[in-house]
Amino acid sequence: MSQNLEPGTAIPDFQLPDENGDLHRLSDLQGDNLMVLHLSRGEHCPRERQFHRELLGFHEWCAVAYTELVSILPNSLHDVSRLKISTGAAWTFLSDGELELQRHFDINEYTDTHHDYAAVPHTLILSPGLVVEQVYVGYWFWGRPTSHQLWQDLGDVLSRTKADFDPTTPAARAAWDMPEPVALASPAAMG
pLDDT tens, 55-82? Predict the structure, then answer.
């Protein structure tokens, strides 16, 4: 059973390399945005390739929706690059080649006797601060979320976390109409 993935808890700010070996912190990739984090089974899996192809259109939506998409694979940099290239993906792919993340979440796919590094795939919806909002377990392909399920989940999170999700409410309008704080000029600019 996976661990440390309960809704409402923050996941660790893992620092992992991309296919070029450049290190990235999850919090830096997320910034103030929502994040869809896919913990992949591994490059060897045809279901992973198909799922990543399905995410291509979703990634286009992310670009206009203040949402980051990241895939983490339990593979070497070379294999991470192979999956990214073979699916035509343009979002960030990271390598958990040391299986640090896999061990932390206890998602080793013990039923795969041919690939001892394989992970039970999980797709996480994270609000700012790497806080878990929703978890999909994709051991079976139908357990993975569709683009439309992700859209619904992300909309639900934003409606709870953004005061201006509906800008027609009186509270949102009042916040908009508040005067901006006046910046004080520095002494050097005044003299």
Answer: 999 999 999 999 999 999 999 999 999 9
